[in-house]
Every structure is written in C-alpha cells, then in structure tokens.
Amino acid sequence: MKIAMIGSGYVGLVSGACFADFGHDVVCVDKDARKIDQLNANIMPIFEPGLDTLVKTNVDAKRLSFSTDLKSSLKGCDAVFIAVGTPSRRGDGHADLSYVYAAAEELASAIDPKTVVVTKSTVPVGTGDEVERIIREANPTLEFAVVSNPEFLREGAAIGDFKRPDRIVVGTDVEWARETMRAIYRPLFLNESPILFTSRRSSELIKYAANAFLATKITFINEMADLCEKLGANVRDVSRGIGLDNRIGSKFLHAGPGYGGSCFPKDTLALLKTAQDNDSPVRIVEAVVQANDLRKRAMGRKIIAALGGDARGKKVALLGLTFKPNTDDMRDAPSIAIVQTLLDAGAQVYAHDPEGMEEASKILPEVVMTESAYAAAEGADAIALVTEWDAYRALDLAKLRSAMKGDAMVDLRNIYRSNEIQAAGFRYSSIGR
Ligand code: NAD
What we know:
About 45% of the residues lie in helices and about 15% in strands. It has helices at about 10-20, 35-40, 50-60, 70-75, 100-110, 125-140, 160-165, 175-190, 200-230, 235-245, 265-275, 285-305, 335-345, 355-365, 375, 395-405, 420-425, and strands at about 1-5, 25-30, 65, 80, 115-120, 145-150, 170, 195-200, 315-320, 350, 370, 380-385, 410, 425-430. Strand 1 (about 1-5), helix 1 (about 10-20) and strand 2 (about 25-30) form a beta-alpha-beta unit. Pathway: Nucleotide-sugar biosynthesis; UDP-alpha-D-glucuronate biosynthesis; UDP-alpha-D-glucuronate from UDP-alpha-D-glucose: step 1/1.
C-alpha cells in the first residue's frame, strides 16, 4: 500500500514509521519545514523511545520518506491519513478543527480516484461529514471515501502501542474503503489485534468516550486518595483492593497530581462541549474536568503546606516536569499549574527533567533548569517529585538530603516508602497515604 501521512508529530511520525515497518510505502508530510529538514537529517523532532532506530531502518530500506510538498506526495496513494493537531479552541474549549479542515482542502484536488482519506486526529462526531463535504465541493466528480480511524497510542510507549494495539477502530460504511483499511492493518490483525468496524460517527465517539473513561478512573482514585488522607487509610491498598476485581481492573488507578498531557484535558473538554451542544450533558465528565483542574493548583498548595504554609523567598526543587515519563511533551502538564502556584506564593523554583527541560523553558521561563536532581536540590527548602521518571526511583537519598537546606519531601507520585524517606532525614508527604 502507498500511504501519505499529513502531520508528522507524535502520532503522524510514529504511525508513519510503523506502517513503513509493516512494509508499506509511506511519506510523512509536514508544513513545518524545520521538522522535515531534521527528519531528513535523521534528527528526531520529538523524544519517543525507539523512534530514531525505527525511522532510520525504514528510511534506509526506502520505505519511508519526508516532505513538505503535500500535492506531489499524494500521487498514487491508496490512503492519506490526517494526523494534524486538534487542540482546544481558545475561548470556548471546543476542538479546534482548523488544521483538519485546512488539510482536507489541500488534499481535495490532489488525491487520485479511490483514495481513502483517513482521519487519525481525534475529532468530534460529525467532522468526517464535514471533511467529506469539503473534498466533494472542491472535486465533485471524484470517487473517494472518508474514514475515521482514531489512534490510541500513548506517548512514551508509542511504538509498542501502535504495533500491538488492544484494538483497531475503523469507522466507515463504504466496503471498498474497509478493504483498503484491512490491507493497511493486515500485519496487526494477523497478530490477533482485533479490528472493529463501525459507522464513522461511532468511531469518532469511541475515541472521546475512551479518553473520558480513563480520565474518570484517574480522577476517581485521586478523590479516593484525598479521602484516604482524611480517614487515615492508604490509597495504594485501596487501589490494589479494587483493581484486583476484573470488572474494575488495576490500570489507571494510581493517585497523583491530576491528569495532563496533549489528550485527556482537551478531549474531555471537547466531549462535554459536544454533549452540551446536543442537549445531552455528560455530568460525570463535567465533574471530572472540574475536579482535575482544581487538583493541579491544590498540589502546589500541598508543597506550600510542607514548607510550613509560607513559600515567600523559599526555594523549591521540582523533579520531573513533563506530564508523564519517557516523553518531552509539556502540553497541559500538571507541573505548569504547580509552578504557577508556587511562583504566585513567592517561591523560587528550580527543576530537573531528563527530557523535558527544553520544552519546559519555553512555557516556564521563571524556572531555573538544572543538570541533575541533586543540582536542583542544592539549598532547597523543599523538594517535590512531580513526574515518575525511572531516574528518580532510586535517588541517593542521603546525598539529596545533604544538598538541601530544608527537609521537606513531597512525593506526588507515591514512588517512595515513607520509612525509607524518613530514615534519610526527610519530612515526607505523599498522596493518599
Ligand atoms: P502534534 O502537534 O505533535 O503534530 C501535529 C503536526 O501536524 C505538527 O507537526 C504540525 O506542523 C502538522 N500540521 C498541521 N497542519 C498541517 C498541514 N495542513 N499539513 C501538514 N502538516 C500539518 O500533534 P499530535 O500529538 O501528533 O496529535 C495529532 C492528533 O492525534 C491530535 O488530534 C491528537 O488529539 C491525536 N492523538 C494524539 C495522541 C498523543 O499521544 N499525542 C494520541 C492519540 C491521538
């Protein structure tokens, strides 16, 4: 199959490289010329484990190439995937579909007959109808199909997720387009990943429903953690005790500082906007969005409480800034609200992150970035563990403590045990324990 991928970000680049690895002929297109220049020089524009090797292998095998020229890239393609961003629209929280519609307009006059146009971006129900309308208006006699194929990969584990998905969802009623999608994903369902065919609208909603459900699970255990703190219970035990029930499952039951990242915040918000517009409110998701928003600043206040309630002139060291480990993605990371709360209270903030400091410096210019966890701790009154990178799981606690001026350690990911932290001379607080 010959495939073009429009948008070479976290999703487009990983999907394109994996399709090439299956043996398809793939061109990844992006309008960001710098990104394409980097990719052509085998420099990855994002940090994703294993991506550099995967890209190089497939470029060397001449199955994967990069271009800024969409029109020439579309020649002879069986399918063109739209994998551009769909951020929250400023002002009202609806999904901003301007990049998707711009891509549809650009491809409309350049695709061959019987090309499948696949929306991989996360888009509200009805977007496929509009993409179809845009293409038909520009090219009224063309035979084409618009298919929804949402992506479920997680940053940090993206290649494994793409190659061994729990399911592949394909939304279309057009039989020849289903055949093309079957051929593209054949290597995966030969490996027994189920492929689920639905209507386009159901497929679009599946992605939002999945993310909203996962966000709900996280928020649920976070609220249980707060209750544990009041009642003298331990959220890790509660989480294990409920997660062992197969109907509940143990994943996404880790209490922490609230969900962030490039998907859950914007997708939960977009879902509730769609629901409100259709007079079918999703009250549970509304509560989740609100609880999660409030939680991030509450985590900043938790650190201030560990400082004795007054942060003015105090130095706080943060370990981890990205929204989760193994990515450099800072979009909607809880660290942003935590830093803001600390700065508002008059603290100075120092930080370390294994991969995220370059991105973080753009968003948080007031934070002093340091070369190691120990350098961040130098002279600090309090240290807070914000993202659970492996590099922070086995810190030399004595060295960390002796670098610090104060003795407060706030573990927002519950990665340490209180007895080992206290033995190293810290005053320790964590989440729900
Ligand atoms: P991203 O911002 O990393 O990448 C989008 C890319 O598209 C950018 O490089 C941008 O320059 C490019 N682009 C925009 N308009 C273009 C155009 N007209 N022509 C060519 N290139 C264009 O975004 P992402 O994180 O890869 O997300 C893409 C979509 O996938 C979103 O809808 C997102 O919700 C969804 N998604 C993301 C993830 C994730 O973990 N990041 C997971 C599942 C789904």
